[in-house]
Amino acid sequence: MSGTVHIAFEELSALLRDILAAHGCRPEVAACIAETCAIAERDGAHSHGVFRIDGYIASLEAGWVDGQAVPVVEDVAPGQVRVDAMNGFTLPATAAARELFVAKARRTGLATLLVRNSHHLSAVWPDVEPFAREGFVALSMINSMAYVVPHGGRDAVYGTNPIAFAAPRSGQNPLVFDFATSALSHGDVQIAAREGKDLPAGSGVDAQGQPTTDPQAVLDGGALLTFGGHKGSALALMIEVMGAALTGGKFSFEVDWSDHPGAATPHTGQFFLLIDPDRGATRPFAERVETLVRQLHATGVERLPGERRYANRRHNSLKGIPIATDQLARLRSLAGR
Length: 337
Ligand code: NDP
Ligand code: PYC
Fold this sequence. Notes:
4-stranded mixed beta sheet; binds NADPH dihydro-nicotinamide-adenine-dinucleotide phosphate; globular; Mal/L-sulf/L-lact_DH-like_ah; binds pyrrole-2-carboxylate; Lactate dehydrogenase; Hypothetical Oxidoreductase Yiak, Chain: A, domain 1; 7-stranded mixed beta sheet; 11 helices; alpha+beta
């Protein structure tokens, strides 16, 4: 049986960077994906941490994503930036547009960033949290692959379509939430299948459209349901509109990866909105957020979204990130070490 070791954030990030570089990513691409993947692992977001490295490699090896792609950034309006990721990963595309995007939000009070022709396999809160640390309210959403049946429908049309929100707090870590609009993320279904665990009732259907709690049945031609019935379905609908129609990208149901067996990175579009909250405000925004948080605590709320991750971050930054020894050995061999 494998034991567990603890590894420093920088060491894990460097190891993941070497793996991605060894599998066809140019250095800047390898660096930003590795960092985000290590952040997810450090903060306990296991469905989008080290577990995903095989998916990145599979998509690179299948020729589904271009690890060498250089994104093209277009300054299209005073408050709008568009990026064509050129069939590369989303994170380097966002990074390439970041300076212009932030400058526009500072100048005009709000700005949008529209990324298309891109692959996103990460958690989304690392995309928005840094903007809140710079004083912005940030919202982002991503469409993906047709894994999810719309409420009232028979077949998968939507992606697991996550939405992430971040806002500054006064003297505290930003308020952040980030979730799939499906009942579960596809990553959690894969993990449940690997661990032989059932899914909660109401999460998915099998290939015949019948309700199932068997994760393998969902993966083998079945699909997920949206959370919250018609309400989650409406959010998933909005994310298709914002992530595909607005960015100029593909709807989740339009993506066809059948010529790239093994590919695992959804070919997506991503929408970002940044708002400068203190522009013209009558009261300081971050303090207003604190008033709300105090009221939540007063009514008995003990856990705000994001707090589990911040606690993991504090703990694992001090003690190291736990990782199974056999998994670490495998990562080292993938890096050619
Ligand atoms: P979770 O259900 O794990 O968490 C959703 C949010 O709710 C988090 O902000 C979490 O905070 C918060 N939360 C959870 N439980 C509580 C609670 N009891 N009280 C208060 N807040 C709570 O998210 P999902 O499984 O839906 O998604 C997991 C990840 O998968 C996300 O990071 C998402 O971005 C990613 N994903 C990415 C996709 C992509 O296309 N790239 C597609 C789909 C999902 P905390 O984090 O602190 O626990
Ligand atoms: O877990 O649903 C998911 C997912 C899709 C794209 C990246 N993660």
